[in-house]
Specification:
Shape: elongated
Order of helices and strands: EEHEEEHEEEHEEHEEEEEEHHHHHEEH
Number of helices: 10
Structural class: alpha+beta
Bound molecules: zinc ion
Strand order of the largest sheet: 2-1-3-4-5
Largest sheet: 5 strands, antiparallel
Number of domains: 3
Helix content: 25-40%
């Protein structure tokens, strides 16, 4: 922590140089924890920037927070930057109603914003609970992921890191990352999952700390999804290959269902496993799997069907555990699976796979038959390609 009580007044290390603090420490000052009133020691080492620590392990709202060197540094840097933008920025302020201490609390007119720098891995349910708590108190939370993320294609993210994915109309599913050591933020926009933990994306946008503002204001990339559509087929193919290799010696429920239906997994039609832009990231289960279930449960089964029927079938599979949704606690309500299904339906129409019937009803625009041989599969690929090449080659 960076703030203590000293002679009954708040004392923050970041307002002083290390030399000044060393000098002060020689006089054996009494620093007190503002939260639990127990004594604190001033630490002036080489790894973390100057900070306070409890002398012993005690039950203090603050003592339980894990603070890595990067966390302490990030908090100090953000405090300095945000103090240039807002008059009222509090460091490590105790929000009584929530019994929580966000790293920074900004008050601007009627609005309150809590900034949390997250370096250590905690449970996503804790992130969710704290986010909901802030929102209940009309405090807008801003979580900044500060664990190392290597910027490459595809972008690999752990389950925990994925929990920080947010949604905006400009960037769609995106991740905001803060690198305190190098003093910049990165926005990873248009995240589109290709496996459980890897994502295709548009070009990352770097924001130097001195240009960081809240709300974040940057122009979106000129050409979204440049890598996604071009390489989608290849990633889909790779995922299928891995699925077979991984499950060659064990039972896989999905592969079992495909087999029982009389379909051949490696020859599944190209329109099963299409990228539903932009909502692909909502689903942890691969598009080949969940879209196959939709074909099997609805489109193949009923001559006439509606979007609601697909929606219900999807939710039923979710409740059975066949389809798994990604845990995204920072998404505001409304970015739900309904949108995923809506856009999936739209895509089926664009691809000319379904045709409108009476009222809300649709029907397949061709007879369902899964290719049985490699030759049949190749013929299918040739037939289908013209239907979606404009989507694949977009941008
Ligand atoms: Zn304390």
């Amino acid at each position: 922590m960076l703030t203590a009580l000293f002679n009954q007044h708040p004392f923050t290390t970041i307002h002083f140089t290390k030399e000044e603090l060393l000098k002060l420490r020689e006089s054996s000052p009494h620093f007190i924890c503002p939260h639990c009133s127990s004594p604190l020691i001033l630490r002036l080492g080489n790894i973390k920037i100057p900070h306070f620590a409890h002398t012993s392990k005690i039950s203090c709202a603050y003592g339980s927070k894990k603070e890595t060197p990067n966390h302490v540094l990030g908090k100090a840097l953000l405090y300095q930057r945000l103090s240039e933008l807002f008059e009222d920025v509090k460091l490590e302020y105790y929000v009584k109603e929530l019994q929580q201490i966000p790293d920074l609390l900004i008050t601007s007119k009627e609005d309150r914003l809590a900034v949390e720098v997250q370096c250590s891995t905690i449970s996503l349910s804790e992130v969710k609970d704290r986010t909901e708590g802030f929102r209940r108190e009309k405090i807008q939370p801003l979580w900044l992921l500060s664990q190392p993320v290597i910027s490459k294609i595809p972008l690999k993210l752990t389950c925990f890191q994925q929990g920080f994915i947010r949604y905006s109309p400009e960037f769609h599913y995106f991740l905001l990352h803060f690198n305190p050591e190098r003093k910049y933020f990165t926005v990873f926009p248009h995240l589109t999952s290709v496996t459980t933990n890897s994502f295709l994306l548009s070009k990352p946008i770097i924001i130097p700390l001195e240009r960081f503002i809240i709300p974040i204001s940057i122009s979106p990339p000129e050409c979204p999804y440049p890598h996604i559509l071009k390489n989608w087929k290849q990633y889909r193919q790779q995922w299928m290959q891995n699925k077979i290799n991984y499950n060659s010696s064990r039972y896989d429920k999905f592969l079992g269902e495909v087999y029982e239906e009389g379909d051949t997994f490696i020859y599944l039609p190209q329109f099963i496993g299409v990228p539903v832009i932009p909502h692909t990231a909502l689903c942890k289960t691969h598009p080949v799997e969940w879209q196959y279930y939709m074909w099997k449960d609805v489109m193949k089964k009923y001559p006439h069907f509606t979007m609601e029927m697909i929606n219900h079938a999807f939710l039923r599979r979710v409740s059975k555990g066949d389809i798994e949704l990604r845990e995204l606690p920072l998404l505001s309500a409304g970015t739900g699976t309904k949108k995923l299904i809506h856009d999936y339906f739209k895509l089926l129409k664009i691809l000319d796979l379904i045709k409108k019937g009476e009222g809300k009803y649709y029907r397949l625009s061709f007879g369902w038959e899964s290719p049985k041989t490699f030759n049949e599969f190749q013929q299918h690929e040739r037939d289908f390609f013209p239907k979606w090449k404009h989507i694949l080659k977009k941008d």
